[in-house]
Each structure stands twice: as C-alpha cells, then as structure tokens.
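hiii, so i know i said id send this last week but things got crazy w the move. better late than never?? heres the sequnce for the chain we talked about at the cafe, plus the structure i predicted for it. fair warning i was half asleep when i ran it
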Amino acid sequence: MIVVPLGVSSATPTVNRNLPSVALWREGRVFLFDCGENTQAKMLQAGIKRSKIEYIFISHLDGDHYFGLLGLLSTLNMQRRNAPLTLVGPKRLKKFVEFNLDIAEITPEFELNYVELEEDFEEEIVVDEDEFYVKALPLEHTKFCIGYRFQEKDKPGKVDAKKASQMGIVEDTQFKELKAGNDVELDDGTIVKSSDIVGEPRTGHSFAYVTDTQYSPNAIKLGEKASILYHEATFGNALADRAKETGHSTAEMAARVAEKAKAKLLVIGHFSGRYTNEFVLMKEARKIFNETWIATEMRPIMTDPEHENGIITPRVKSNQKAAKQLRKSKNSYNHNKKGYNKKRTKKRKTFKRRSFAGSNNSKKFSEYYTNKRGGQHNKHHDKKDDKNRQNKPKDNPKYKPITPRTPFDEYNRF
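okay and structure toks below
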C-alpha cells in the first residue's frame, strides 16, 4: 500500500501547495480521497495513472475538496475509459456531477456509480471486496463531513512447505485447503491439521483519512492502530480558537488522536496558507506523538518499503526538493557553466606610486600621499558626519527601525 499526497493546502492554493487530494495505490489499483483543483495534473507529475482510479471518496462538499472532480471525469471520458468508476460521498454529490456534466454536454462512455451517505448515518461499509473494505464515519466540521478508513483484510499465515511435505502434503489443492484453514485427510486416513502447517494470520495494512474536523471520537475510531493516519492540522496551538471557530484541528489535536488511536504513523496535512513553514506544526505535534511526518506533495509513503520502493516515482521534483535546490542555486555561482559572466564590480582606485630621489624626499612623499588620499580631509568629514547623525530627528521615517510583519497579520479568512 502506497499513499501519495497530491494537495496539502486548505481553502485556497498557495505558490507551493495545491488543494486537498490523496491517492492510495494498492497492487496496481488507485483509490482517490478528495479531488481538489489540479488533482489530475498532480497525478501525472507524481507518476500515477489516472486510468487506474477505481474509487473516488469525497469527504464533504466544500469546494476545495471536490472542484477538481469534473475536470478529471472529463479527461477520463476523453481517454475513452470503459472501466466503471464509483464515487462515494455526501448526499447531493450525484446531483452536482450530473448537473454539471449535462451543462457541459458530456455523456460519460463509462459506467458511473454513486454511493451517497445521509447526514444522520452513524457508520457504514461503503466498499467491501474480497481483500479489503472501506469504512465511513461522520466527523465534526461546520458542514457534514465524512472520514474514511481503507482496511486490508487479514491475510492467511505462511505455509511451512518443508513440514507439509514431510507430513505427506504434495498437491496444490491440499496446500490451498490448509491455507484456507481447513484440515486435510491423506489417502492413508491421516489428518493433517491446518494449525500445524500454517502460521498465524497476518494483519492487513490500513489507511485512515481524517480531514476538516475538530477533535473527534470518530477520528480515533478511524485511526485505531492504523498503519498510516492522515489527519488535518490546519492551525498551530496559537490559533486554537480559530480552529474551533472554523471546525478544524490543530497539530496538537491531530497528535492526540494518533496517540489515543495507537496509530503507527501520523501524517499531517491541510495546512493554512498563513504557515509558510509547515515544520512548525510538525514540531508541535511531535511533542505528543513522535511518529509524525509532514505530508509532502508527490512524496510516496509506503507501508512496505522493502517491496514497494520504486514502484511510484514522481516525474517532477517535489516542492520541498525544488525549494532546496533553488536555495542552493541562489547561494552559489556555477563558474563552470558556459557563458558565465562574472559579477561586475566597480574598479578600485589605486594609488600610483611616484619616485622621490634622495633621502630628504621622504617627508615630501608622506605629504603627497596624505593629500592624494585625502587623509586629513576624510578625518574632518568623519567627525562632521558623526555629529550630523546624532542630530538627525528620531521621527524621520528613514531612520525608523524595521519591524518584520508576523505571518498572522490580517490573514483571518481561513
């Protein structure tokens, strides 16, 4: 299972962040959680095929979480998709999609299915397949919002092939029966128990998607022992009141959810645009839950790095890597690059020495040097300038101290 954040901003995009969307890759199949603007472009950049999407889960009907859906559906139709696609989300999602497709005169050539949830639902399995299921629970936001948990079903334990052959198990059908938990009877009447051959069942990996919510008991249920808990951290502790007012979480709240849920890894995202350095939020979260990561767009998060490393490779550099490279290029000059122009500097005036014949000319040389360099003149003016600086009015704007503006000034919209 590989989780790839595609957009980690909240409310509006910024220069370095896109609107909310997270892709989950599992054995070649793609599951999309929310679909903000520019999602399909970020999928291309992240190296994820749009044609592999089978389910799209929409958390709620705030525009930043689903306004990229229509563009994605239009692209899939232009690519002549024929595989069915299922959209899961709040009531009125189907109405929104069909109305806008009708306005654009787009008739999907592929089957479009809907699973809609009412506001008063308590818990529901929205997807149930042989190897996994997806559970939905309501969250606590200013608008009806849904959290999701993608859970792999437990896998059978490994078969001890050497021990099985010693006990007379040779046929594939016998191995399958044992792996399914059934005992096998041999031709001589010997009973081979499944528990003697097959190890303990392996717990499947899980991914919890919790966004746009206050601290919620349902968030803890969704993230219970999750392999990856993706939780919003829109604000820092200093703006806890703002978080409560807008129905969002702080980084500390996300950490408390992960701690109580006993999640293996917490990944925070959905950052307010006022935070240019999201590591400030990670620092706050790690005071409570040390296993906290920052959601970085297009950077894969793997549950089994040994086998999954390299499966998804971004086609472009992530914002974090690009910013690091930009800082590096600004701080150094590439002298080896063809056509490099050295920095132009004003040529320094140098004193041209003159010869003075005879030992009695040393005094003349000293006087000449002083006059030429303006030594006496400079000393006089230095004292004068110091006196002028002291007499400058303190209310002169030119001499007022510079006070840097905080990132929170006049930025209370979201």
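btw DSSP finds 14 helices and 16 strands in the chain. thought thatd interest u
miss u guys!!
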